[in-house]
TrEMBL record:
GO cellular component: ribonucleoprotein complex; ribosome
Protein name: Large ribosomal subunit protein bL35
GO-annotated biological processes: translation
Gene: rpmI
UniProt family annotation: Belongs to the bacterial ribosomal protein bL35 family.
Database matches in Gene3D superfamilies: 4.10.410.60
Keywords: Ribonucleoprotein, Ribosomal protein
SUPFAM superfamilies: L35p-like
Record keyword Ribosomal protein present: yes
Organism listed in the record: Apilactobacillus micheneri
InterPro entries in the cross-refs: Ribosomal_bL35 (IPR001706), Ribosomal_bL35-like (IPR021137), Ribosomal_bL35_CS (IPR018265), Ribosomal_bL35_sf (IPR037229)
């Protein structure tokens, strides 16, 4: 049985953690920051973990 191919769109957007979770960049960070509070902007920096329900769906594509 052949191996399944990795979905390249998923591979570019998500990274696997050591424990098997998925992390990605936050949404709403590209423009229009004047409508967001400083706290929102600060919390949108960096990466965040994908919740388990959604991660299960993407796991099959990795």
């Amino acid at each position: 049985m052949p191996k399944t191919k990795t979905n390249r769109a998923i591979a570019k957007r998500f990274k696997k953690t050591a424990k098997g979770g998925l992390k990605s960049a936050n949404a709403f960070t590209s423009h229009r920051f004047h409508g967001k509070t400083k706290k929102q902007r600060r919390n949108l920096r960096g990466t965040s973990m994908i919740n388990k329900t959604t991660a299960n769906k993407y796991e099959k594509m990795f």
